[in-house]
Amino acid sequence: ALLGAALLAIAGCGSTNVMDTYSFGHQVIRAGQSEITIALPYEMGKSTKNMSDDGYPIDIYGSVTDHMVIEVEALRAGENKPLPTVDEYVNRSGTIKEESVALEGASAKKLDVTYTTQGQTFRFSQYVFLDHGVLWNIIYQYPEKDQVGADISKEIQNKIQVTQQKEG
């Protein structure tokens, strides 16, 4: 994360267009029988945490810079612990604007939220959907007054592809 922040500081000199500063690409993430491809401005790392706070097996990927926090969680059912529905999971998050969106290969609940903590206001978009027994939770967050974060978010939002696995 420190290297990313340092590169971000260097790359940001003289350019105000995120397309000039970042090399947008894609990252494939697999969990259980589900696979997604997500548009990103930089690669995410995988957390060593493998259990959610409420006892579900989980894979967590993320990246943090001065402009943007990106987190992808893949939650699976535990022993005698069925997955919550998308609506149950979403209801545990404070929502401002909620809509259903069609991603490539799946439909998802999308939440657009603005919140303030410790005097700083943040915006985030959250996508929650179920695919092949995996509950995906994808969050893009940036400081509200950060134009670079807003531009990155605009560039990657809704660019989530759910790969349809071939049976047999």
Explain this structure.
With 168 residues, the protein is an alpha+beta fold. Helix content is 18%, strand content 45%. It has four helices and ten strands; from the N terminus they run ααβββββαββββαβ. The protein has helices at 2-11, 18-21, 86-91, 147-156; strands at 25-31, 34-40, 45-46, 58-64, 69-76, 97-103, 106-117, 120-131, 134-143, 160-162. The strands form two sheets. Strands 3-4-5-9-8-7-6 form a seven-stranded antiparallel sheet. A hairpin with a 2-residue loop joins strand 6 (97-103) and strand 7. It is globular. The N and C termini lie far apart (40 Å).
Overall, the morphology is globular
Largest sheet: 7 strands, antiparallel
Question: Could you state the order of secondary-structure elements as H and E?
Answer: HHEEEEEHEEEEHE
What's the tally of helices?
Answer: 4
Residue share in helix: 10-25%
Structural class by sheet pairing and helices: alpha+beta
CA distance, first residue to last residue? 40 Å
- Low-pLDDT parts are 1-15
Query: Which sequence of strands runs across the widest sheet?
Result: 3-4-5-9-8-7-6
Strand content: 35-45%
Rg over CA atoms, rounded to whole Å, is 16 Å
- Please tell me the overall pLDDT: 83
- Total DSSP E strands: 10
